[in-house]
Amino acid sequence: MRIRCQRLKSTGHLLTLPLPKIESMAATVAVPGAIVHKVLTTNNYEDWSIRVKTYLLAKGLWKVVGSAMEPPRVEDKAEFEAWSKNNAEALHAIHISCGDDTFSFIRDMDTAKAAWNTLEHKLKPARLPKRKDVRSDHESPMDVELQLKDLNEPVVEGINVSSPSTLLNITSHALRY
């Protein structure tokens, strides 16, 4: 698809420019000035969550999402109205920073906290367990080295390098496997 512009004065030709394919861009990139430069997909939760959380903190809206407190009661009219406004702003920020594939997870939610927690539950990658060190807590590196040396000694003792026929037998046996 091309868009026509005005005629060039020097040649009289129409200037045409190709338009980017908007469908593919809309799935991953937000509009300029948006909350995040890439909308949430199923593959970028960690980066997305940091950016959105920072935005919500800067706007004073994170307390609606990150607080363990329940929303105020409707009877506390002023407090409830303030919370409702902040909740709507935070929920809107989360909504518009989600791609089509992730927005469906939170479409029907009416609190920013529920939306945030749902996205975290569905999209946050599981952490791999920390690698266990080979040595136990009470072993020093020297102990491990001595254990490895002890394992090597029978192999070294079994090879009589002064006898060429023994060395050839071991080498030919090793090459078969």
TrEMBL record:
Q: Which domain of life is it from?
A: Eukaryota
Q: Which Pfam families match?
A: Retrotran_gag_2
Write down what this protein is called. Answer: Uncharacterized protein
